[in-house]
Amino acid sequence: MIEAVATATPPPLAKRMRGLSDRSIAWLFVGPTMLLLLAINIFPLLWTVRLSFTNFRANRPNAEVLGVGLDNYISVLTDPDIWAAMQTTAHFLFWTITLQVLLGFTLAWLIDRKFRGHGFWTTLILIPMMLSPAVVGNFWAFLYQPQMGLFNYAVAALSGVPPSSFEMLGSVKLAPWAIVIVDTWMWTPYVMLICLAGLRSIPATIYEAAEVDRASPWRQFWHITLPMVLPFVMLAVLFRGIENFKMFDMVNLLTSGGPGSATELASITLKREAFEKWRTGYASAFAVILFVAVFGLANIYVKALNAVKNR
Amino acid sequence: MKLVGISTAHSVVEPTARTRGIAGALVVLYAVVTLVPLLWIILTGFKTPQDAISYPPKVVFTPSIEGYCNLFTTRSRQTPEYIAALPPADGACEKVARDANMVVAGTSNYIPRFVNSLIIAFGSTILSVGFGVMAAYAFSRFKVPAKDDLLFFILSTRMMPPIAVAIPIYLMYRELGLSDTRLGMILLYSAVNVSLAVWLLKGFIDEIPREYEEAAMVDGYTRLQAFRKVVLPQATTGIVATAIFCLIFAWNEYAFAVLLTSGTAQTAPPFIPIIIGEGGQDWPAVAAGTTLFLVPILVFTVLLRKHLLRGITFGAVRK
Question: How far is CA A110 from CA A115, A118, B297, in A?
Fold first, then answer.
């Protein structure tokens, strides 16, 4: 590369002077991205905020739009259905993250034993997280069919319960676990991959020094491995947390929030309010609240993460 | 987690052969169990509708192309007399249809939806990587006022729940005539992906030594020429990896697609789940559609495996 540059004939001085200044290039280069984000992200966001103070309904564009002040926010925050959806979301978040961290870390630790062919198997394990969540939700609905579904059949074969005696998607008690299982199936590889990077970032010399000091393997694990992988685990939790707080596609296809509202996560409630009941103003208020919540929680979390990293 | 305790009984620095063996066996077991659902879908694509819903689930079955035929065609039911009077079937799918007392009536919407997915995914990838590489270069090399705030702002656009953005986008597109158009979806996916592109590409460009461009500029190149002829070629790997991540996102996206498209611009993810046959979902056809839709992703996963970590963490973790 350097050679190619060196042998190329230098353009004449006059042309060089005509080149744009660094400052204008900077603006020119950042401009398109900012314009795109302003048009398709910020402008809509501001519009959402504006709509949240009105009684606008998108299916009645000609009706008179009235400002309602904070009414939408008050009704969202006092709506028991919204709080039920937040609880469902919290259950989903807690269990998916817990299971994915436990499984993901264990897998990463096992892969880091560097057995023969670990690269090949790692790639295979990664496949589920690359798939379309919607398509995944759809085919898991097939696997979860009572009677003919593979999942029920496998559970029956392992536990002896008749395969038609339970419905993963039809039962209010099991459906919340059905979505946790699919999410864990899909995203454990994600946590695994980040944990693996953490494990590999630990210099071998630290372990060697611990060996010299005759630290037991347990002590090495607790005092070297875990603390050094922790920032990586926290990062994985941050990304999974944001993604699952927004979760819509997979669950919409698996259960559409049902049965009843057993798996109705915040995003699904939002979709029902905005695109089925067409309460646009109310849905906008809920959207603003959700965004502020994600944004606020993520900010606090990043501070905690940095504190751990800089320990 | 018990296993961690058992295996750390050996030196962590150099695991013993036994530790390695146990670890390998467990990882292989996990990989196999986790891939069974996927293999099952691929198999289901080759079953007849009857085999697909039989109990107990059939592992051994006679393969059939009915699923793929049903995916690509629409059929209409006819009387046996009508079918008997027709000239001999041309084509395998016509034959399969006639065996079920049906004739092929036309092509299904799967191919147009698949083509939409391709156009929208590639269109938005070109746009977001193009914009992204420019912004990333500026953030990497120049003093941009409030740089960190801008970068964080770009990232934070990714935190919004898609449904929250979809409400005003739906209204805005209705006004602008962009509802259910490919252009509308390309712009929307570009806006979502550009944040990822900027963050990833900034990481890749940061790794290219500034001295390369400076040397070129000493030789008389302008800044723009140096960018085009020195930085871009050096960043090829990063650009390709970023492009694949953008492609995968656009390819897989569902929430915006289902809310903002219904016909001409509809992509495959909202279409596949609504493939129905007589009496409910046609599972072999759905499985066939799913399989074809997933093949590009499997290829990309293998191509990307070295950059996956970077891509999924917005460049926060590099190796």
Answer: 9, 9, 26
Q: Which of left, alpha, beta for A169 (phi over 0: left; psi -120 to 50: alpha)? A: alpha
> A-contacting residues of B 79-98, CB under 8 Å?
none
How far A307 CA lies from chain B's nearest CA (Å)?
A: 16
| pLDDT score of B319 | 59
Please list the alpha-helical segments (H only) found in chain A: 2-7, 13-18, 22-37, 43-51, 71-77, 80-111, 118-130, 133-143, 150-159, 175-200, 204-212, 217-220, 226-245, 249-254, 266-271, 280-309
CB contact under 8 A, A135 and B252: yes
On whether the CB atoms of residues B193 and B246 are closer than 8 A, the answer is yes
Q: Does B277 touch chain A (CB under 8 A)?
A: no
**Amino acid in position B55:** Y
Q: If you measure CA to CA, which chain A residue comes closest to B1?
A: A106
- Position with higher pLDDT, A35 vs B165: A35
Distance, CA of A100 to chain centre: 12
Q: Which of A41, A130, A149 has its CB closest to that of B297? A: A130
Q: Is B169 within 8 Å of chain A by CB?
A: yes
What stretch(es) of chain B map to CATH 1.10.3720.10? 111-267
Note whether B250 contacts A: Cβ–Cβ < 8 A. Answer: no
What single-letter amino acid sits at B124? S
- For residue B67, what pLDDT is reported? 86
Structure ipTM: 0.85
User: What is the pTM assigned to this prediction?
Assistant: 0.86
Length of chain B: 319
3-state secondary structure of B61: coil
Sorted by where each begins, the domain ranges of chain A are 13-51, 76-309
Q: What is the DSSP letter of A11?
A: P
Residues A47-76 pLDDT 10s: 899 989 988 888 887 777 788 888 889 988
Distances (CA, A) of B172 to A39, A273, B169, B260: 10, 19, 5, 11
- One-letter amino acid of B294: L
Answer whether B318's CB lies under 8 Å from B203's CB: yes
CA distance B48 to chain A (A): 14
- H/E stretch holding B268 reads helix B268-271
Contact status, residue A25 vs residue A42, Cβ threshold 8 Å: no
Q: How far is the alpha carbon of A173 from chain B, nearest alpha carbon, in Å?
A: 23
Give the number of other CB atoms < 10 A from CB of residue A114: 12
Domain A76-309 carries which CATH code?
1.10.3720.10
Alpha helix stretches (DSSP H) within A160-174? none
Six token digits for residue B71: 């995916």
Residues of B in Cβ contact (< 8 Å) with A284: 167
Give the DSSP per-residue string, B110-156: HHHHHHHHHHHHHHHHHHHHHHHHHHHHHHHHS--TTHHHHHHHHHH
Closest Cα to residue B142, out of B213, B216, B236? B213
| Fold of the domain built from segment(s) B111-267 | MetI-like fold (1.10.3720)
